[in-house]
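Could you join me in thinking about how sequence relates to backbone shape in a protein? We need material for that, and I hope you will provide a protein of your own picking. Once you have written the record down, we can walk along the chain together:

…
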Amino acid sequence: MQKKHNKSLVLATTGYSEDDFMLIKSYSQYIPIFYSANYSIGIHLLTKALKIVSSQIDSNYDIEMIDKHHRYKKDSPSGTAFKLYDAVNGALNEKRKLIHGDSNEKGVHVHSLRLGNYVGEHTVIFSNLSETLEFTHIAHDKSVFAEGAIKAAKFIKDKKFGLFGMDDLLGA
């Protein structure tokens, strides 16, 4: 990343370390940077709904996530699964750790499936002994991510500097 070119930057890569994010934040003092782990408007709306639900449930609810992608996807869980986990856990009254796979341990369990040609499907399930809530987002085509990234690029094109995200784009 070179600030000497003074160009706006749209980042969609996941897997950054804390040091990487500190560097991104430091560069955002000089250039406009838009970052999101997922550029789907639907995923952003899903995170908002999950925050509302998570803030209202009690510890009697089990929380499971299913993260489906094509067989060639390398990361597991996906960056989107981590984004959804952050939305859920950030709003819970009693924080829970992310647990990849099945166990009897209390937490938010994420099950990653890599099969066929799935673009991306994410389901978050809240269930107690009396009822179940399921929230699912399905990306039918990868163009949904490009559309969001183009909107982000248009959003920051006239900005002087700063770090922006989907909340800024959608006026949260």
Residues 3-35+144-169 form a domain with the Rossmann fold fold (CATH 3.40.50.720). The mean pLDDT is 94.
